[in-house]
């Protein structure tokens, strides 16, 4: 059922209900009529003492004397409260219908959904037309977290690559924007160093492996280069990809848990699995399985040392030698599971199913995701985003749950998440473009990647790189 209701239509039904409730609780009082003119005015006559009889009924409590006017008022208030309760019981189960997404928001192949096309149009405009808007968006993100500037580029390149593979007629346009993003990112890294894209605590102590490099930066640059090459090969980008892959493989091999650092003595499953995804892209380009072999060994080490014993979920961060720092976190797990589809699809599906059970939630047509399982709660931080009280919804986890639901074909959960997005993220539609007021560029780019997901991973499998 497709329900589209404007605010005016909603007010048409809601305003009379509240007006009626107001009238019940606040009856119109008529002004007393003036006393009739007589020889002796009523006011001058001696008054008889009125005797009020005690009154007990459903509007009074036992043993309490209630005057008739007060009893009537209580009855009216009770009726108003009952009306509100009934209205709430009727409206709440229907509320999601006003925000419910169209069927088929994620399509395995072919054109993007209308929402995906509108998100794509806005993201393209930031890089093709309005440099001032792009600079302002990046500045706002960097003020909160420099990583978001970098990750926004990665998600957008992945989304553009998927869109190019879905629509060959638009491939040249999408590749031009990909090249601009990648070339600019490489130039910034050369001029300002990897710390430009990292949070300040990266300088508080030395990296275990020297010279210092961040797998967060190397892995996502390699991922952008690999995605570009899988659409159309470019020699200089492939050379850079091969160099990054060799460096990442060397560093991961030197760790007891086959993991390289993103920050000093801090490894993240998020970054290591994305690095493995970039290696799988290189496998597909060169007809090799070196990335797959390392991925399988990494997964064996992770199963032995990086699984949370209570939930069976991968932890989010750990030291270079494998000491766990943070337990399972939704802002990592959903993306990690989707990346592991390129290493071990069965284990990836198991991780998604566990995350869905431990972190996913649905109620009355709305969907969201918690940041932590009930058995472990970490601190609210820049990754989790604000946590909604009572339901425990996390902006970071819910956003990446969209990618998980799309990657694993979980259409009902994807629909619930998108319904919540329409209610809580305040969509702004300008012509054929869409963005969300409660989000930012990285959030919108991640959503675009989720709705476009599929062609890149399929191309890896089609190149003989299927695990």
Automatic annotation (TrEMBL):
Keywords for the protein's UniProt record, in alphabetical order: Membrane, Transmembrane, Transmembrane helix
Pfam families noted in UniProt: Ldi (PF18566)
Membrane-spanning ranges: 77-99
One GO BP annotation of this record: carbohydrate metabolic process
InterPro entries, A to Z: 6-hairpin_glycosidase_sf (IPR008928), Ldi (IPR041411)
Superkingdom field: Bacteria
Domain Linalool dehydratase/isomerase, chain residue ranges per copy: 248-439
Name of the molecule in the record: Linalool dehydratase/isomerase domain-containing protein
């Amino acid at each position: 059922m497709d329900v589209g209701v404007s605010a005016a239509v909603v007010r048409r039904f809601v305003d009379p209900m509240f007006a009626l409730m107001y009238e019940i609780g606040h009856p119109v009082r008529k002004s007393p009529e003036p006393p009739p003119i007589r020889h002796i005015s009523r006011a001058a006559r001696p008054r008889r003492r009125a005797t009020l009889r005690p009154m007990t009924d459903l509007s009074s409590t036992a043993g309490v004397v209630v005057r008739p006017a007060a009893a009537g008022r209580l009855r009216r208030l009770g009726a108003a409260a009952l009306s509100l309760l009934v209205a709430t019981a009727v409206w709440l189960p229907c509320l999601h219908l006003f925000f419910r997404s169209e069927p088929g928001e994620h399509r395995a192949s072919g054109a993007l959904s209308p929402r995906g096309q509108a998100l794509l149009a806005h993201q393209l405009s930031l890089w093709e037309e309005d440099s001032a808007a792009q600079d302002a968006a990046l500045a706002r993100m960097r003020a909160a977290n420099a990583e978001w500037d970098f990750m926004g580029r990665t998600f957008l390149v992945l989304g553009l690559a998927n869109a190019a593979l879905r629509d060959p007629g638009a491939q040249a346009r999408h590749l031009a924007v990909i090249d601009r993003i990648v070339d600019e990112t490489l130039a910034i890294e050369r001029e300002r160093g990897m710390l430009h894209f990292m949070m300040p605590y990266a300088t508080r102590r030395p990296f275990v492996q020297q010279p210092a490099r961040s797998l967060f930066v190397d892995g996502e640059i390699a991922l952008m280069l690999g995605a570009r090459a899988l659409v159309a090969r470019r020699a200089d980008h492939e050379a850079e990809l091969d160099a990054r892959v060799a460096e990442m493989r060397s560093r991961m091999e030197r760790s007891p848990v086959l993991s390289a650092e993103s920050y000093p003595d801090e490894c993240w499953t998020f970054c290591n699995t994305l690095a493995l995804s970039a290696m799988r892209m290189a496998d597909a380009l060169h007809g090799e399985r070196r990335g797959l072999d390392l991925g399988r060994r990494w997964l064996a080490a992770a199963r032995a040392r990086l699984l949370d014993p209570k939930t069976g979920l991968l932890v989010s961060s750990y030291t270079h030698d494998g000491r766990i720092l943070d337990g399972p976190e939704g802002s990592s797990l959903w993306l990690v599971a989707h990346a592991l589809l390129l290493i071990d699809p069965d284990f990836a599906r198991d991780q998604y199913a566990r995350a869905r059970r431990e972190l996913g939630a649905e109620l009355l047509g709305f969907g969201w995701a918690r940041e932590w399982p009930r058995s472990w709660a970490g601190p609210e931080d820049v990754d989790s985003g604000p946590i909604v009280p009572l339901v425990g919804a996390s902006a970071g986890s819910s956003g990446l749950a969209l990618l998980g639901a799309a990657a694993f074909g979980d259409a009902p959960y994807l629909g619930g998440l998108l319904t919540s997005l329409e209610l809580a993220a305040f969509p702004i539609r300008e012509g054929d473009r869409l963005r969300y007021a409660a989000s930012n560029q990285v959030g919108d780019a991640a959503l675009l990647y989720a709705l476009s997901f599929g062609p890149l991973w399929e191309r890896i499998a089609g190149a003989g790189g299927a695990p």
